[in-house]
Specification:
With 147 residues, the protein is an alpha/beta fold. It has one domain: Sugar-phosphate isomerase, RpiB/LacA/LacB (Ribose 5-phosphate Isomerase B, Chain: A, 3-Layer(aba) Sandwich). The protein contains six helices and five strands, in the order E-H-E-H-E-H-E-H-E-H-H. It has a five-stranded parallel beta sheet, sandwiched between helices. Bound molecules: D-ribose. The site of D-ribose has 8 residues, from helix 3.
Length: 147
């Protein structure tokens, strides 16, 4: 895993279990994890937690974040409405790598009902250790960053 730093994480009830697994993995690897919740499997509305996390990334309080819901779709939709947020729903390693190399994704989104625990942890590890390539990719990001 790359040099650990600070990361914010949030989910809904459908991915609470996976969020806890990922949080444990991050803590074991030296990351400082800000968990916005929820803290049990009681049914909640994913936008409430997606907006908290995306807002913190949008304002620059955190450079990296992880969001989870059942499919990952709702959290992606919510997060990508925020300025400067580039949330990437990744259910395979290729997407995880490319979302960092080419898109400089700052939020990794996962579906707790889609991926198994082991693959999810590999996606997290890979996403965190992959660097943005910059160059022509930065030019492309600049074209929509101010929308
Ligand atoms: C909750 O049932 C589910 O709709 C939510 O976790 C997510 O998958 C929405 O996109």
């Amino acid at each position: 895993m790359s040099q650990p730093g600070q990361i914010v994480i949030g989910c809904d009830h459908a991915a609470y279990r996976l969020k806890e697994i990922i949080k444990g993995y991050l803590l074991e690897n030296g990351w400082q994890v800000e968990d916005v919740g929820p803290f049990d499997e009681t049914s909640v509305d994913y936008p409430d937690f997606g907006m908290k996390v995306a807002g913190l990334v949008s304002k620059g309080v955190f450079q990296k974040a992880i969001l989870l819901c059942g499919t990952g779709l709702g959290m992606s939709m919510v997060a990508n409405r925020f300025p400067h947020v580039r949330a990437a729903l990744c259910h395979d390693l290729f997407a995880a790598i490319m979302s960092r190399r080419h898109n400089d994704a700052n939020i990794l989104v996962l579906g707790g009902r889609v991926v198994g625990d082991v693959l999810a942890l590999e996606i997290v590890r890979t996403w965190l250790e992959t660097e943005f390539e910059g160059g022509r990719h930065q030019r492309r990001l600049d074209k929509f960053d101010t929308l």
